[in-house]
Specification:
By secondary structure, the chain is of the alpha+beta class. It folds into two domains: 57 residues; 216 residues, Immunoglobulin-like, CATH 2.60.40. The chain has five helices and eleven strands, in the order H-E-E-E-H-H-E-E-E-E-E-E-E-H-E-H. Strands 2, 3, 4, 6, 7, 9 and 10 form a seven-stranded antiparallel beta sheet that branches. Strands 5-1-11-8 form a four-stranded antiparallel beta sheet, with no helix packed on it. Helix 2 runs antiparallel to helix 3. The longest helix has 26 residues. It is globular.
Length: 277
């Protein structure tokens, strides 16, 4: 009778140990830290809070050469990312985050002024959140923005689920998109000192801004009382997005469970040897 009770106790303990091990493995999430920097020259361009989407490759932010969807129009004209957040929420397993500057810089504090940066961490699934999409408006402007038109352009995890170490996106003047929804006259544009009202364009599509478009920004007055640089070039770096994996302590639960199971089996064999003798 005692032998049977001991066996049941050992079986129950073994099951519990295995369960802990499996929970430790299945509960492990891949945590990453996303860091955003405005690396413009001191009197360079600003940008709005940044939209991030993490998905399986089936989420498309926009398509170059086509008319801007409502979500991009709102983002490019006012910096409003809510449409993008709503769109990506319809993709199963996707995640999104809007990163604000912490407000410690020049007003308005939610914007990323030259030299400012901010980070956030998020737990991702290597298959459901394999790809990264992003978008933010550049100011002062009527409708220019950064973003990636290809859903699979930026791959955080490879086909085996391994995180891509050293992941970094460097954005230059040559990467600026024009949404084609408003005239680029700076009237009614966020952070522009000109005031007035913007003018909608007709039958225009999303396209790269180019150096000629950047020339229009030279020396423009800002609502902060300063002026933009008189020399803005397509080769100037404006922003940097970097992503790194954060060590996750939950992975050690699985290791501890495995060691506990090994120790239990050794102990069980010793006890069985004593009982048989």
């Amino acid at each position: 009778m005692n032998t049977q009770l001991n066996y049941l106790k050992r079986a129950a303990t073994r099951g519990f140990t295995i369960a802990i091990t499996l929970v430790g493995i299945s509960a492990h999430a891949i945590t990453v830290r996303v860091h955003v920097e405005n690396v413009s020259q001191p009197d360079g361009l600003w940008f709005t809070p940044v939209f991030f989407g993490f998905h399986d490759g089936s989420y498309d932010t926009f398509d170059a050469g086509l008319s801007a969807p409502d979500s991009i129009e709102a983002l490019a004209e006012t910096g409003d990312p809510s449409g993008l957040v709503s769109n990506i929420s319809e993709v199963s397993g996707s995640k999104s985050h809007v990163l604000f500057q912490d407000g410690s810089g020049a007003p308005p504090g939610v914007l990323f002024a030259p030299g400012e940066s901010q980070s956030f961490t998020i737990d991702l699934d290597s298959s459901l959140n394999r790809y990264l999409s992003f978008a933010m408006m550049l100011v002062p402007s009527n409708d220019i923005f950064f973003g990636n038109p290809s859903p699979s352009q930026f791959e955080l995890f490879d086909i085996f689920g391994e995180f891509q170490d050293g992941f970094e996106i460097n954005l230059f003047g040559s990467d600026i998109w024009d949404a084609g929804t408003e005239e680029n006259d700076f009237l009614g544009a966020p952070l522009s000192a000109l005031g007035g009202f913007s003018t909608d364009t007709i039958n225009s599509s999303i396209s790269l801004l180019g150096q000629e478009g950047l020339d229009n920004f030279s020396g423009r007055p800002l609502a902060t009382g300063t002026n933009l640089s008189s020399n803005l070039f397509a080769g100037d770096q404006i922003a940097r997005i970097s992503v790194e994996q954060v060590p996750d302590s939950t992975q050690y639960i699985g290791f501890l469970g495995a060691f506990a199971l090994i120790g239990f089996r050794i102990l069980s064999k010793k006890r069985m040897g004593r009982e048989s003798s």
